[in-house]
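Example complex used in Figure S2.
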Amino acid sequence: MAALTRTGLEALVPALRELVGDRGLLIGDDAAARTCDPFRHVPPAIPLIVRPGSTQEVSAVLALCHRRGQRIVTHGGRTGIAGGAYAGDEEIVLSLERMAAVEEIDPVGQWVAVGAGITVEAVQNAAAEHDLFYPIDLGSKGSATIGGTIATNAGGNHVIRWGMTRQNVLGIEAVLADGTVVPAMNRMLKNNSGYDLKQLFIGSEGTLGIVTRAVLKLLPRPRTQFAALLSLPDFASAIALLGRARRMPHLSAFEVMWNDYYRLVAASGPERRPLAPGQPYYVLVEAMGYDEEADSRLFDRFLAGAFETGLIVDAVSAASGKQIADLWRVREASEIIVREMSPFVSFDISVDIRSAEAFVEATRAALAKSFAHARTVTFGHLGDNNLHLGVHIGPDTMARETEIEHCVYAVLARFGGALTAEHGVGRFKRAFLPQHVSPGALEMMRRVRACLDPERLLNREVLF
Amino acid sequence: MAALTRTGLEALVPALRELVGDRGLLIGDDAAARTCDPFRHVPPAIPLIVRPGSTQEVSAVLALCHRRGQRIVTHGGRTGIAGGAYAGDEEIVLSLERMAAVEEIDPVGQWVAVGAGITVEAVQNAAAEHDLFYPIDLGSKGSATIGGTIATNAGGNHVIRWGMTRQNVLGIEAVLADGTVVPAMNRMLKNNSGYDLKQLFIGSEGTLGIVTRAVLKLLPRPRTQFAALLSLPDFASAIALLGRARRMPHLSAFEVMWNDYYRLVAASGPERRPLAPGQPYYVLVEAMGYDEEADSRLFDRFLAGAFETGLIVDAVSAASGKQIADLWRVREASEIIVREMSPFVSFDISVDIRSAEAFVEATRAALAKSFAHARTVTFGHLGDNNLHLGVHIGPDTMARETEIEHCVYAVLARFGGALTAEHGVGRFKRAFLPQHVSPGALEMMRRVRACLDPERLLNREVLF
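Predicted assembly (928 residues):
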């Protein structure tokens, strides 16, 4: 049995129990059964998970930990892949799982107020009951929480239309490391009454405070959906096609797959091969709107124009929800990549769209020079600058992970790219952050963190 | 002649001249000829304006002032109406007017990098040369600068589609009070590499640092434009109409005019009276897109549906750019309001859309109770929660400004509204901020400001 042996914890537990009650604590095996990593079992080093049931309890727990110098790692849905939920041997875990209510929904102002522990999917479902829509959509939406997506500024497939999580949060309530509650549950689309404090917490990966509640912006639920998978003769066509797609106000996704990705996925079976492999680029375009006739006209004209100007070689367009889902299975085929490429090191970077092709080629060349059997898969949200890259160099891939990272990030730095587009820095990319932001920016980040959490009690090993 | 008599300034001027040269200084009458207020001549108290020509010069000037404890007020286009550009007798002015270049424009990634002193209109023009579009549009765009609109998170008429300035800034470079340069000229739509520092500066009204350069997001330039002016029988219809309008992906404005506004403007002449006065609400709806046929179909169906369901009493729709401009002259008639209502106290607030009518009625009732001859004009961006309200109580309006403010803000606080939607707090609304944000939020704002500008050298009298 996982035991609480560290000195000081024996005294901490009763004090915590006083604040959050029996239901608010998971100790020993119950805590050790939890994982901090979505792909493999990585329990928290100390088997102690505090689960406050209210903002007041979060505040009391943080104030207690602050007095004792006790470090804390915050848990949302633990679906992040940058190690942000890992808890080391000086850290206890605070989970928002008991604060998961839909508190209020306003169909006129189009917002919903929720507890931070609610899942993205539960928010989507609550919105749908009012014919509304929360546009942040992730593969992990059944587990990922609103608090976690706020802390990491999660993206996903619809960013090109509706932005990242940051663009979809109206207000938050957060608790600082010393227990101070910061209520900023704004519900207005426009509010310039002082600093927009929520912006500090969004994307700060839990290092500046713990988000306890949030107000999310909603949209009218789309009634139409169109999608097509296209094969392209070259990268210049992908850029030209993106320019045309951006002139559809109802464009909702523009996903590019490099040949290394499409070939791998297409080989897995005919249902993942709606178009013949062999072209250098494949693009999944999606549009969502509210008027069947106008929307289909726009989408059809986009496809016809792309054919006429030679931007696409071949196309398959979907005529039903089932067919659209099938096209998305080509783009969201992580289980095939895991099966065919493992072990692999994954990258989530942003680059100048104009040089995305050159960046990928330079990266492959650099990998080939350093590793005898390097293989890549490359895909991403090109319109958002965001590429995902998987690298496998053989059975020793994970043993040489750091070498692979150095190799890719060195090319990335040459291209002025961003270390992480949507997955965050977490623990895993922390060592590389200083190369990818300027010293002045890093200095300012340090000042802000020191101002709000001078003892670095919150997510200490994360970011920098 | 305006003279530099304050002790210490005689020594400061040569030190500044050393840093920025003769061109970089305006002294005496040249400085006193400047106004800090867009409506009347309010010169800076000290006739000294520093105009650095580069980020390095801004940094050097701030470092010098920091060593000497010299306070600074930053000037952009000085079009703000909250007193943010007022400079008192312990403050010198730093103007970004010489840093106004278009540095780079990327038609593929759709962004432009500029100096902070460039005007909004110059950015719009530079974008148009590449068939691109910068959606922040203000009456003062010929004078308002990008730096100023970033510092105040400016809004305008297109927020319902494209958001506030915050949503249209990708990166910034700023200089802190001690001269530290923070380069964060991000050009990526997705970048989660550490804290998103630009968010701190946007909307902070120059209190956390001076924005010197920025990267702005651009869009494909719209090719179609539709507008209609509608009269409505009641407020419930305005809400229902807004719900329908939001289902047009190309909706670009939804402006509501209360009867007190429309009656006043309509009385000024037939060209400002496209619809008969007498209805309680008037709405200007606008849509912009890229496909004439699809876009006009959507807009026509929206109008037809509104008629059929009885949401609108009458409508006039515009068929050309000239006609659209004429409809906008009904909504943008500030010269008529100034002529017919002056003197008046103006408010820029946000309220829950559902209770906007009740708020306006409660405000009128409270004003009528306190003042014998209160008159109001009411209009705004209802879809963004944002109402503008002008109040006139007679010749003594300005003498009793504070009383009027207390009266309106007391009602606003009861309705949970926001003190300022888009104009900012500046100096003029500073006294009211503590009533409209929570103590915890205000405490966090103080901590952040103290962390970045502990001596409060930047825009000291602004915000809080």
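Chain B touches chain A through 93 residues (CB under 8 Å). Chain B is about 35% helix and 20% strand.
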